[in-house]
């Protein structure tokens, strides 16, 4: 009897990832179709000529939910929609007829004139709203599309803009807030930031990337730009033969699939830096995964390629020359948030001011511009830690400046908890959010300080508290000592309430924590919003009771037993 065998079924071909250099440029999803149909930069003309004249109802849906982002505009959340509806309603049902407008501030550099214009726009067009973001931008709310051309005109008259503040584009370039003035600076990143911005921002060839692309550049030894969570970062270092330049990092990012960036081991000179930046963003554009939005960040390509291939492709296909190997930057020895009063290299002082969870107002910003000028300064910087710094204050002006700033709600000497508190926009305005963040954080910090008032000598030297309103990580919860990720939870009474999943022991490279690490989660550990102060008190006291001498909170949290973290 002859035995027949069933022929082996041929293997199914892998689905294309939408990599332009491998699969071709044909769009593989609706987002890619939208971008292919019309470059996002082109929507500005329609905003100016049609939508601002005919109003919200005239806006094409593809522009409203897509291309508007290329000019820093998102529809904000309609008021009164509870967090439980976030996942069940469509974007159209969640959105208001007003916009969040993000003012792009590359390197965080602002003149008092520019800050005053932002403040005036806030009071006239944004119901006096303003938030300092953790990417050195300022965000306004309640913007009506009819006012956008006037707002652009005012911003651009003083050298500001909203170009590519959102969207699948190169976002704002993070830069050291003390560039050019710090006594300890290795290299001033200002020329590199300015040249990247001049050459590439707002250019159509880089205005259709797989997803957003984040950049950080610093020459300060505190590594003050959260470089490990950017797509590309240039970190100041000194080559033994080539002098001061930059160490190249790529592939960092958080959100639902966090990954810390990695060194390529390459040294980059100041002159090479813009070309290297162009090479990395071009790799992302040409080889980045476009089929699935949740895998369309550079970190996924790096995970598959590895650092060696990434460097080789950069050199062979985009630079045309090899980069020299470079030294690892020295470990930071000080905090990188620049809070407080610090002497500049010219003998003047810069003063880092903390606003409650980054929340300010147009009135406050205008008053700060006036205050700085009254004390001889015309320059300020925003920071990646939701702070704002006044530069060039003479020594005899410092005390009065600090005291007057305090009356504006801006503190040069914040407490441990106020200093470290970062919160995203939250349910107040964000369509993705599930819980409130800003008010929750501000209220919680006040109560935490009250609860731990008699614990002063036992607190860690550093303790960052970050609150995020959804599973994304705009507030960097995975890199906080204590990070709270918003979700709905069920309390003991069986009621659904606002709460948080807790991440513990996250850290970026710093004087206190050593190397960067992502926070750990503890099984079943969820905290209701109104229980947040009690939880922080409990875990801080557990740290005080069992931490080794000099041990950071992050290090302790990673080795502690789960019972100590609940």
UniProtKB/TrEMBL annotation:
<keyword id="KW-0560">Oxidoreductase</keyword>
<dbReference type="GO" id="GO:0020037">
    <property type="term" value="F:heme binding"/>
</dbReference>
<feature type="region of interest" description="Disordered">
    <location>
        <begin position="1"/>
        <end position="28"/>
    </location>
</feature>
<dbReference type="Pfam" id="PF01077">
    <property type="entry name" value="NIR_SIR"/>
</dbReference>
<keyword id="KW-0411">Iron-sulfur</keyword>
<keyword id="KW-0349">Heme</keyword>
<dbReference type="InterPro" id="IPR006066">
    <property type="entry name" value="NO2/SO3_Rdtase_FeS/sirohaem_BS"/>
</dbReference>
<keyword id="KW-0479">Metal-binding</keyword>
<comment type="function">
    <text>Catalyzes the reduction of sulfite to sulfide, a step in the biosynthesis of sulfur-containing amino acids and cofactors.</text>
</comment>
<dbReference type="Pfam" id="PF03460">
    <property type="entry name" value="NIR_SIR_ferr"/>
</dbReference>
<dbReference type="InterPro" id="IPR005117">
    <property type="entry name" value="NiRdtase/SiRdtase_haem-b_fer"/>
</dbReference>
<dbReference type="InterPro" id="IPR051329">
    <property type="entry name" value="NIR_SIR_4Fe-4S"/>
</dbReference>
<dbReference type="InterPro" id="IPR036136">
    <property type="entry name" value="Nit/Sulf_reduc_fer-like_dom_sf"/>
</dbReference>
<dbReference type="GO" id="GO:0051539">
    <property type="term" value="F:4 iron, 4 sulfur cluster binding"/>
</dbReference>
<feature type="domain" description="Nitrite/sulphite reductase 4Fe-4S">
    <location>
        <begin position="167"/>
        <end position="320"/>
    </location>
</feature>
<feature type="domain" description="Nitrite/sulphite reductase 4Fe-4S">
    <location>
        <begin position="419"/>
        <end position="564"/>
    </location>
</feature>
<feature type="domain" description="Nitrite/Sulfite reductase ferredoxin-like">
    <location>
        <begin position="342"/>
        <end position="401"/>
    </location>
</feature>
<keyword id="KW-0004">4Fe-4S</keyword>
<feature type="domain" description="Nitrite/Sulfite reductase ferredoxin-like">
    <location>
        <begin position="96"/>
        <end position="158"/>
    </location>
</feature>
<dbReference type="GO" id="GO:0046872">
    <property type="term" value="F:metal ion binding"/>
</dbReference>
<dbReference type="GO" id="GO:0050311">
    <property type="term" value="F:sulfite reductase (ferredoxin) activity"/>
</dbReference>
<dbReference type="InterPro" id="IPR006067">
    <property type="entry name" value="NO2/SO3_Rdtase_4Fe4S_dom"/>
</dbReference>
<comment type="similarity">
    <text>Belongs to the nitrite and sulfite reductase 4Fe-4S domain family.</text>
</comment>
<dbReference type="InterPro" id="IPR045854">
    <property type="entry name" value="NO2/SO3_Rdtase_4Fe4S_sf"/>
</dbReference>
<keyword id="KW-0883">Thioether bond</keyword>
<keyword id="KW-0408">Iron</keyword>
<protein>
    <recommendedName>
        <fullName>assimilatory sulfite reductase (ferredoxin)</fullName>
        <ecNumber>1.8.7.1</ecNumber>
    </recommendedName>
</protein>
């Amino acid at each position: 009897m002859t035995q027949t065998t069933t022929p082996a079924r041929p293997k199914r071909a892998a689905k294309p990832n939408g990599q332009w250099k491998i699969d071709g440029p044909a769009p593989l999803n609706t987002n890619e179709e939208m971008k292919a149909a019309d470059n996002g930069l082109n929507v500005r003309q329609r905003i100016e000529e049609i939508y601002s004249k005919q109003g919200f109802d005239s806006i094409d849906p593809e522009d409203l939910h897509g291309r508007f982002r290329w000019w820093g505009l998102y529809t904000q959340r309609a008021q009164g929609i509870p967090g439980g509806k976030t996942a069940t309603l469509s974007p159209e049902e969640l959105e208001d007829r007003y916009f969040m407008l993000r003012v792009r501030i590359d390197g965080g550099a602002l003149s008092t004139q520019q800050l005053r214009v932002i403040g005036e726009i806030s009071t006239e067009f944004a119901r006096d709203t303003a938030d300092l973001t953790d990417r050195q931008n300022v965000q306004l709310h309640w913007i009506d599309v009819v006012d956008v051309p006037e707002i652009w005109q005012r911003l651009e008259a003083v050298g500001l803009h909203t170009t590519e503040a959102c969207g699948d584009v190169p976002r704002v370039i993070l830069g050291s807030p003390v560039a050019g003035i710090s006594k300890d600076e290795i290299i001033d990143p200002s020329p590199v930031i300015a040249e990247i911005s001049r050459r590439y921002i707002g250019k159509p060839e880089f205005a259709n990337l797989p997803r957003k692309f984040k950049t950080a550049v610093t020459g300060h030894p505190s590594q003050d730009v959260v470089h490990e969570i950017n797509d590309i970062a240039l970190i100041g270092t000194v080559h033994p033969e080539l002098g001061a330049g930059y160490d190249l990092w790529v592939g960092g990012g958080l959100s639902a699939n966090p990954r810390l960036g990695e060194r390529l081991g390459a040294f980059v000179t100041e002159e090479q830096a813009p070309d290297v930046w162009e090479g990395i963003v071009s790799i992302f554009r040409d080889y980045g995964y476009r089929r699935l939005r949740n895998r369309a960040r550079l970190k996924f390509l790096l995970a598959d390629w590895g650092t060696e291939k990434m460097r080789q492709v950069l050199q062979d296909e985009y630079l045309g020359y090899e980069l020299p190997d470079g030294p690892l930057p020295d470990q930071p020895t000080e905090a990188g948030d620049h809070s407080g009063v610090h002497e500049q290299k010219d003998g003047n002082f810069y003063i880092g001011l903390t606003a409650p969870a980054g929340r300010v107002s147009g009135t406050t910003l205008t008053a700060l511009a006036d205050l700085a000028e009254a004390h001889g300064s015309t320059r300020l910087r925003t920071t990646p830690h939701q702070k704002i710094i006044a530069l060039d204050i003479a020594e005899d002006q410092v005390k009065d400046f600090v005291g007057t700033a305090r009356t504006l709600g801006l503190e040069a000497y914040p407490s441990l908890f106020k200093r470290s508190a970062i919160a995203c926009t939250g349910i107040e305005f964000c369509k993705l959010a599930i819980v409130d963040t800003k008010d929750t954080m501000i209220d919680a910090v006040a109560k935490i300080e009250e609860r731990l008032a008699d614990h002063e000598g036992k607190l860690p030297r550093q303790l960052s508290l970050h609150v995020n309103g959804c599973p994304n990580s705009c507030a960097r919860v995975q890199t906080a000592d204590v990070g709270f990720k918003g979700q709905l939870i069920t309390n003991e009474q069986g009621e659904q309430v606002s709460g948080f999943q807790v991440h513990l022991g996250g850290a970026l490279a710093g004087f206190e924590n050593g190397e960067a690490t992502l926070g750990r989660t503890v099984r079943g550990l969820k905290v209701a919003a109104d229980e947040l102060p009690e939880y922080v008190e409990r875990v801080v006291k557990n740290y005080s009771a069992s931490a080794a001498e000099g041990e950071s909170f992050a290090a302790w949290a990673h080795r502690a037993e789960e019972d100590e973290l609940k």
